[in-house]
Design a protein that fits this description.
Elements: E1 4-5, H1 20-28, H2 34-37, E2 46-50, H3 55-66, E3 69-72, H4 74-77, E4 85-89, H5 91-98, E5 104-108, E6 113-118, E7 182-186, H6 188-193, H7 199-203, E8 209-212, E9 220-223, E10 226-227, E11 230-233, E12 236-237, E13 256-263, H8 267-270, E14 277-283, E15 291-299, E16 305-313, E17 320-332, E18 339-354, E19 357-371, E20 404-419, E21 425-439, E22 443-447, E23 460-464, E24 469-486, E25 489-511, E26 534-536, E27 539-565, E28 568-586, E29 593-618, E30 621-632, E31 647-660, E32 665-677, E33 680-682, E34 699-701, E35 706-720, E36 723-735, E37 749-758, E38 766-775, E39 778-789, E40 795-804, E41 810-817, E42 822-829, E43 837-839, E44 847-848, E45 853-861
Parallel strand pairs: 3-6, 11-14
Antiparallel strand pairs: 1-3, 2-4, 5-6, 7-13, 8-9, 9-10, 11-12, 13-14, 15-16, 15-45, 16-17, 17-18, 18-19, 19-20, 20-21, 21-24, 22-23, 22-26, 24-25, 25-27, 27-28, 28-29, 29-30, 30-31, 31-32, 32-35, 33-34, 35-36, 36-37, 37-38, 38-41, 39-40, 41-42, 42-45, 43-44
Helix pairs in contact: 3-5
Amino acid sequence: MNGYVLTERSTGRRAAVCGAWLLMVLALGGISPAPLLAQTTTAAPRTFDIPAQPLREALLLFGQQSGLQVTAQGPLVEAKTSTAIAGEFTPAAALGQLLTGTGLTFRFNGADAVEIELAPQSSDSAVQLGPVRVGGESAASGIPPSVTSSDPEATEGTGAYTPVATRSATGLPLSLRETPQSVTVITSQQLEDRGITGLADAMETTTGVRVVASDFTRPTLYSRGLAVSNLQVDGHPMFSGGQGLSSIQSDNMIAYDRIEVLRGANGLLTGPGDPSGTVTMIRKRPTREFQAHGQASLGSWNNPAGEADVSGPLTSSGAVRGRVAGGLYDSDNFIEHSGRNGKALLAVVEADLTPHTVARVGYQYDQYKIEGLGFSSAVPLWFSNGQPYNAPRSLNREGPRDNVTDQRARSLYAGLEHEFGNNWAIQGTVDLSRRKRSRDPGVFYMSIPTYPDPSGLGATLNTDVPYPVDDRQWAYNVDAQGPVTLFGREHQLIVGATGWDQTRRVDDELSDISGQPPADFVATYPTPSATDWSLPYPSWLTGFPRSKQYTAQHGAFAAARWNLADSLKLITGARVTNWKTSTDLYDGQTGVLTQADSGAYSVRREITPYVGAVWDFHPNLSAYASYADIFKPQNLYDADDNLLQPIVGKNYEVGLKGEFLDKQLNASLAVFRMVQDNLGERDPNFPDDYETPGGNTPYRSAGKGITTNGFEAEISGALRPGWNSQAGYTYAKSTKATGEPYNPDLPVHLLRVFTTYEFQGHLSGVTLGIGGSWNSSISRVMQRPTGAYKANGQPVTADYEFRQGSVLPLAAMARYRVTSKLSLLLNVDNLLDQNYYNTASSSSGPTYATPRRWRATLRYQF
């Protein structure tokens, strides 16, 4: 049925106290959970408060307040206005009054589902729209799709914590239960509830993902204990990090509907697979009906922000639609003398070229400026005499406020989708992107050394020369998918191609550092109140490149989902990839090419296989298994600027998945194993701020036999109407072939939990949420001064193990809907203000986690 599901399907059933895992136990024992939870919702009176407004929005509120699933054909609710209702009514009486004067009636399809339809005398006036790409009954999940978006997997407007479907693993639109790998989708509702403003914030709420922030300007993601480098937007790769740039580029989420996190290898769609996982941000698309919102917020450390989002039809028929969304912020950091500000813009137009063809073109702009940039946010632990330093959390060890970097990214993208009459469809996208990093003039600045002198003298004098970076990329993907019939059964097939070309130019800059700062500039350490602990020195662009790097990847893939039996599906696939990279080095002062094709490396016709199976052995439960080869060229260089050998290995995963409460709640349990060779790690023989002659951070191979074993458990969705939850636990332990731990400064155990409840009755309009993130202990072997000194005055040090026990910072939220359109949201992270370290990954000391922070947001929905 091509219709709009206007509310979350809601059965009104009581959630079992023990949640999804008890339901799994019951199901495994042959007991269906449905009889335990059945409860009618249509007879008992409820409190309703729905002002007169566009009928679509009124029906959304009715669904939330009644606990019913409301379904309507799209044209029926367009250009109609509801009648206001307020007071105690049965759901049937309330809906009858709501529809007064609209020419519509309704009928119940069971105890908890109602369908809007034309009244009998108006049945001849039905009007059909163009292609309505919403899941309806054909959706892979019972969670309702977005009311108006042309993206069939959009989470916007659903109010759900679990998605309709995801394409992250195979390119086919599958439910979480049908996908033979672990996937977490951070929906639009979760982004709103948690007050998430950037990608790093979003990842801190995600099962199995750890955000390591040894430098607040350049955090790193880890999934299942391994670094994540596969970051994408709409399936196209983000620019890489390095050269002082972060691979986490999005500080503003206004452009995105959701974030899909696939854990494990993803070589089928991305080519060389990243064994840890793939993070894909999905852009918003225009809606077929008008909608808009604006919001303003204020938070800790002088953190104002604002955003606006307007979307809807540009023609009376809705065949042409547009969307413009923008946001800006200006914030300080809890680390003194540091902060960032930025802005983001998304503009996209979409058109139905035919009843079966949709085209879109869009532009995205993302800019942010970082103040107080340094090499590291780590703090000293010890004075040079071996006494504890006891650094405050606000200490900025290096990076004065006037050390500023500015990054601007622009993307022009287009897409085309066409549906054939035989249920086959083809779609393609192309993306042209550019990122430029510019820096203010160089500075002399003081920094606190790793082992400060107790007297407060002997500050380290540093110079920072800004090298501008210019990244350019064009990327594409195209695929065709549809059913094929073999041996009396219908199967699904997808074939496609993806690729991208990237270039990076690093320009040279001259500076006059022959003169030295005055003597009193380095006489004492900078103190928390100091504002003048840096001095500019003359610097200018030469106009010539320092280096040019070229990287390209192109490949084709095919996969099939074989319907072996009603309860058994097998997914097989493979990808063929060509990959190459090289770097040209220049004399940055003359522009003369000094070395061509430095670190050149290429791979041709690399085959990456994929196989997965899903067995539905119970109406609520499935068992699955998947396997993928790991092959990943590394954009990492050793101390001699030679590219490291590619990562190779294998990825295995088996588990159980379940759908409960009419598919409103998803649960999963997974066991995984990854074996890798040649995994790159920071070369400990060089300090954190060292750069090779080619401007690279030195890495080395960790050798053969890096093995990661672990398991995960996750639930996501609604435990009952108005009660959303997301919870996940991960155990992941990586060891080298020698038995030594790999990445010991990452926690082995990671638990993420967050739940919200929307009250009804006298507390209608109030939503409360609470959660936390528990991390097990972290450790690292560091050097501690013994109290003795060498002849040159440097402290004598000895090995010691830094260790921090487990921590459980809490988070909370509260929302009050002042009216049906106006709401006030309060988010508090690290609720109890725990003082702990985020990471000990830096050799110069650990890095503090963010103290308690709050954000208040006023939002108006038009």
